[in-house]
Amino acid sequence: MRVCLKEPNPKLAAEAADLSACDTGITVSRGYAVGLLLILGITFVYSWVMAANATTVGFTFLLAILGTSAVWGLGVSCFMSVAATLAYDYFFLPPTHSLDIADPQDWVALSAFLVTAVVGSSLSARAHNRAADAERRRREVERLYALSQKLLGMASLTELSRAIPKHVLECFNADSAAFFLLETQEIFAAGADGCDLSGLRLRAAATAPNPREEASNLWFVPLRQGQKILGSVGIGGLVVSRETMAALGSLIAVTIERVAAGEQVAKMEAAREGEQFKSVMLDAITHDFRTPLTCIKSSVTALLGDLEFDREQQRDLLSVVDEECDHIDTLLDRASELARLESGEVRLDPRPHSIGELVSDTLADCKSVLRARPVPCELPHADVRVLADLPWARSVLAHLVSNAHLYSLPGLPITIRSAKDGDFAFLSVMDQGPGIAEEETGRIFEKFYRGKDQELRTHGTGMGLPIARAIVEAHGGRIQVVSRPGRGSTFTISLPLERADRVSAKAS
């Protein structure tokens, strides 16, 4: 399978190559022209403008040659050395205006000048080339670093495979790039000619021991991690060293292994959590289902037996069966709901709602609590709007109110308060119950966990608070509890403010 990230345009690539070759030729020709002009200029100055001895002229020629070699290289400097030798002989060594040399010592001087010019320019050009090579390698290292930074945030192998050719183009300014993943036999390409990189050559490169370069600066790099072959990368229009290409292949191979290992760890963790959830679910079924099933079994056995029950007694037994069936149904519904929330199957639809609207809708769902005890509301921010999926957020607040009712002494009030801080609004439900022991406050949000002293006092599934936490966190908020044993507990949830309220909050 081949995936192209950009339409190919061979004509543009050919035009770019022609322009590059043309620019190189112009640069070299310019170097020869500048060198010739320097020799002619020095000759003119010392012949017609100011008089100087032969030594001064020779050193001036050498300085010009060495400076030129540092810019245009050895070829131009050698050309200038020959031209300067001829000009030196013709204009400054006797007999002047003639290439004849009368004094044998002048032959030695002229030869020494030519050798010095060539050797000096050669050393200067070599130093310049080394500096240029060091600068090129520095840029290549910077490009490798930039590529590693771009690939660092990838968490999915599919996402990484699509991103590799694109990021190689961006970081190395190449014309085209293609990535071959051996495991899936897929080819991902990008750039002007990315789709023209041969799949056969990419597959062949995966088994090659080293990077190799073909015509038109086309590189193929094998991706190996130890003895394991991961695939290959093909890059077109790129002028880099073989060492850089080897480093590029190693970098991509290490990144692929890291992402693949991360995916494997995530799968193992998901499998482990799934097994843990099944185990906890089984324990919960064993524990929480046994009592209602025992009641149902006892009632049904009695009804099916030969015992004589009047109509009222039969109604009581059937009521027990009905209530315990509802209890089991609630337990299953909550387990299913929690599993859907944790797996990400539930998609929230947060929209702006005022805090007053959220609280009033919640209290409408808690009429039985309102009939049993007062529920005062202290809402100084009733008009503040939060981003919330109203049915889900209402279910969280209703569960906190119902919990406070179950665990509070009869007749004592439950208070609902609001606050605002930064980009979040806070809703607190305060009861005056027995409170929660300090060692248990960190566990009450665990699945199926119920307080040690509460398991026999009230009926419950131990899944209400974990569900509430999952819903609040899906909104981008948090749920917390502060408890004072013997004096009550306060559960607080945070919900993000609507953007307009965030701006006004920061302004105030």
Structure description:
The protein has helices at 10-49, 54-72, 74-92, 104-152, 157-172, 199-205, 242-288, 290-304, 311-343, 355-364, 367-372, 390-407, 464-474, 499-507, and strands at 2-4, 176-181, 186-191, 212-214, 218-225, 228-236, 351-354, 377-378, 385-388, 415-421, 424-430, 479-484, 488-496. Strand 4 and strand 5 (218-225) form a beta hairpin. Helix 2 packs parallel to helix 4, helix 4 runs antiparallel to helix 5 (157-172) and helix 4 runs parallel beside helix 7 (242-288). By secondary structure, it is α+β, with helices and mostly antiparallel strands. The strands form 3 sheets. Strands 1-3-2-6-5-4 form a 6-stranded mixed sheet, sandwiched between helices. Strands 8-10-11-13-12 form a 5-stranded mixed sheet. It has 4 domains: 2-138, no CATH class; 153-264, GAF domain (Beta-Lactamase, 2-Layer Sandwich), CATH 3.30.450.40; 289-343, no CATH class; 351-507, 2-Layer Sandwich (Heat Shock Protein 90), CATH 3.30.565.
Task: Give a summary of the structure in a few sentences.
The chain has 508 residues and is α+β, with helices and mostly antiparallel strands. Helices cover 59% and strands 15% of the residues. It has 14 helices and 13 strands.
